[in-house]
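Q: What structure does this chain adopt?
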Amino acid sequence: MALAIGSRVKQERQSRGWTLDQLAESAGVSRRMVVNVEQGAANPSVGTLLRISDALGVGLPALVESPRPKPVKVTRSGEGAALWSGESGGLGVLVAGTEPPDVVELWDWTLGPGDRHVSEAHTSGTKELLQVQQGTVTVEVASQSVTLDAGDALTFPGDVAHSYANTGTEPARFSLAVFEPGVGTGHRPEASNV
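A:
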């Protein structure tokens, strides 16, 4: 996966005629990080990938899936991009996404007992929708904490700090949709870590 992402980042950067330094500055990451990503030598955080994809104006889904000219994109079971893993067996998989400028991402999350994913605020205007499929998930948004059971859903602003946690003893699973308006339009504030 790291090599595929690196190849895609390099292709997008070169198609714009950008230097490594230009991409690093635009994305707000170090030049070394861009080099490591392009070489497939780094395992960057989702936040770093978001900053790079925003700077390139392509959206995160475009970095993790191969370009396809077809209007219908199918992601078969097991083909999603695993972009986060937890210490207790958790996994965050980006299973589908739309093209810029208004990007929608669909995620399949599993949190093992004790797993917690912390996300800094995304870019302004980002919205998230979450539905628990199995177990119990505690979502913290800014200073508010909400515990959800299987079948429960939550809508919240993704442009504030938030986290997802499984404080139970059984695995928890949830679907997450993330809406990021205006990717690559040049009038958005800099992205934060995911």
